[in-house]
Write a structure and sequence with these properties.
The protein is of the alpha/beta class. The protein is built from 15 helices and 26 strands.
Length: 601
């Protein structure tokens, strides 16, 4: 089905709780300037001589060499389409940072070319950066119904005055964006409405699989569309960018339905105890399995954690989750039921600092207080980089006396990503000319590239790229010879930080070396009045080292005497230099020194 779309005039959104509701159209579209339909008179023919072909560029701005902040740009001539706009959770060294998003400097420089952002599915590592990206690019967003609902909720919270242009598509639909024709393909993942994206360009098809696995028995009965991938392979795929997350895992990824027995066994084994289940808030397939099992065992399900509650409410309203009305009860009514009849489902499987399970493990949750009668089950494996936070959470749960079920031996998690045999199957179906492994750490990309060689992709046509690399494809061949600015932008709250820059460096210095504050009062003749005042944080305290304090006082006096006629800024620099010399002498560090000068008239 061909559709002509435009990103100028009409905004189509899905209804959200607490927001003005609009009718949901099954496949809304827009008409106007961008992608204008050309209608030829009857009998007319297109010119026989086509213009010479240009270069096609594939530019990863995030998602390579890492798990998260996925963003990929496809550029031809004066048109760019962007696939995904995700975030990544910080590692332990990113002190006080809430999350990390891609650096979109290149897209800002080429803003006039960007036609749209295409979203594969609703996980945070694919939609989490949208509030920041749309604030700068203001382009339409295309995705499936549930994904758009999650996006609108996120934007309503972060940018309440912004009116996004959200356009719903369905698997199998084709739209036109500038020079590109875009077709959406159904894939199976750990969240409903996941999509692969095929972008037709003047040089050929660029196929992005999105996150996928080949699950023959998915919870929602929406399987990966093998026939669509096979048909693209028959017609010819120029470039395949494929999910590498499980490229190190042999065999096939288990079906989500394989967890039914494990969940039933959990409820049967601990039938006289309260059960707390921690999972990703967006893993709605797993939520459905828990709801079904709770109904079978006559349990009530309580959802805790804002993102979990919001996603469940949205999915029920849009028809993606199904449960009897009496199965789900509000958290406020928890005390109305015996503990043995309750299942509490919450966030925090990755040890996120303010998630439901982490607050419970610290005894800081406003409603749920854990004790030795509780069983806690983690229905997720730790994302690389989150292992220590997850481990700390588990340790605190044990300290509370809880029985904790976690790890592969507990059998409570099934991946949403294809393993090696599935990746080889897809490569065999698609048979791409060029191949780029995406969405994974470097070793995963290498393993995926080796699989591509096994199924016949020539080594010279496989590109293990880094964020910012530009894969340029021409009729003569393909190469990576240039690079654009890419990397990470650190986000603290809703304030953008610098691009992996000074803010984090300053925090790391403070954490390692502390800070020294020097306050000096100077009279109108430029003479120091009394002793300077020192305040230290994270260092030796001068009240315990009087001789050292006197030496610092003398260093400040010398600076003032030597430069009594200088302006305040120059004098501050001299105080900092002299104090840092002493800090290196005594503490073997160059911690920050903050001088404060007060002049009396």
């Amino acid at each position: 089905m061909d559709k002509t779309v435009n990103n100028d005039k009409i905004s189509v959104t899905v209804p959200m709780q607490g927001a003005k509701k609009h009718a949901i159209r099954p496949r809304p579209y827009m008409t106007g300037r961008v992608g204008k339909r050309t209608v030829l008179p009857q009998g007319a023919r297109l010119p026989r001589k086509a213009p010479p072909l240009g270069n096609l560029k594939f530019i990863p701005l995030g998602g390579l060499g890492e798990i998260g902040k996925n963003m990929y740009a496809i550029e031809y001539g004066d048109d760019i389409v962007v696939i995904d706009s995700g975030l990544m959770f910080p590692d332990e060294e990113m002190l006080g940072i809430d999350y990390v998003i891609p650096d979109i400097s290149y897209l800002e420089e080429n803003k006039a070319k960007v036609r749209a952002i295409l979203i594969t599915h609703g996980h945070e590592d694919h939609i989490g950066a949208l509030p920041f990206v749309l604030a700068k690019l203001d382009v339409p967003v295309y995705s499936a119904r549930l994904t758009l609902g999650m996006i609108e909720a996120k934007l309503a919270e972060a940018m309440p005055r912004y009116h996004p242009r959200l356009i719903e598509v369905v698997a199998g639909e084709r739209i036109k964006l500038g020079v590109f024709g875009v077709t959406f393909i159904s894939v199976c993942h750990s969240i409903p409405d996941a999509l692969g994206i095929a972008v037709e360009t003047p040089l050929g098809v660029v196929l992005h699989t999105g996150d996928f696995k080949i699950d023959p028995t998915p919870v929602d009965n929406h399987v990966t569309d093998y026939s669509a991938f096979a048909e693209l392979g028959r017609r010819g795929v120029l470039l395949l960018a494929s999910d590498s997350t499980n490229a190190e895992r042999d065999g096939f990824t288990k079906s989500e339905k394989s967890l039914i027995g494990a969940i039933d066994n959990l409820l049967r084994t601990y039938r006289n105890r309260r059960i707390i289940i921690s999972a990703f808030a967006s893993n709605l397939h797993r939520v459905q399995l828990v709801l079904d099992a709770a109904a079978r065992f006559n349990r009530k399900v309580i959802f805790a954690g804002r993102s979990m509650v919001n996603n469940v409410e949205l999915a029920i309203r849009l028809g993606y989750l199904h449960a009897d009305a009496e199965t789900i009860v509000p958290l406020a009514e928890m005390d109305d039921y015996p503990e043995s009849r309750l299942v509490i489902m919450t966030t925090g499987s990755q040890g996120e600092p303010f998630s439901g399970l982490v607050l419970m493990s610290k005894g800081a949750h406003h409603r749920v207080k854990l004790n030795s009668r509780d069983v806690v089950a983690l229905f997720a494996s730790a994302i690389p980089g989150n292992e220590k936070m997850v481990s700390s959470t588990i340790n605190r749960l044990f300290e509370l006396g809880c029985e904790v079920l976690y790890g592969r031996e507990a059998g409570l998690h099934v991946s949403g990503h294809a393993s090696r045999e599935e990746l080889k199957m897809l490569l065999s179906m698609v048979r791409p000319k060029y191949f780029v492994p995406v969405h994974g750490e470097y070793r995963m990309q290498v393993r995926h590239s080796q699989l591509a060689e096994e199924v016949g992709v020539p080594e010279k046509n496989i590109f293990i790229m880094s964020n910012g690399d530009v894969l340029t494809i021409s009729p003569e061949g393909a190469s990576v010879r240039t690079k654009v600015q890419a990397g990470a932008v650190l986000v603290d709250g809703m304030a953008l930080g610098e691009k992996e820059g000074s803010i984090l460096k300053e925090r790391q210095e403070l954490s390692e070396n502390g800070v020294l504050v020097v306050s000096a009062t100077i009279d109108k003749r430029g003479k120091l009045i009394g002793d300077p005042y020192f305040e230290t944080y994270g260092q030796i305290h001068f009240r315990d080292a009087e001789s050292m304090r006197q030496e610092f006082c003398e260093a400040v006096r010398r600076a003032v005497r030597h430069d009594s006629g200088a302006d305040d800024e120059y004098l501050k620099k001299q105080i900092v230099l002299r104090c840092k010399e002493l800090l290196r002498k005594y503490l073997h560090s160059a911690s920050p020194v903050i001088p404060i000068i007060t002049r009396l008239d």
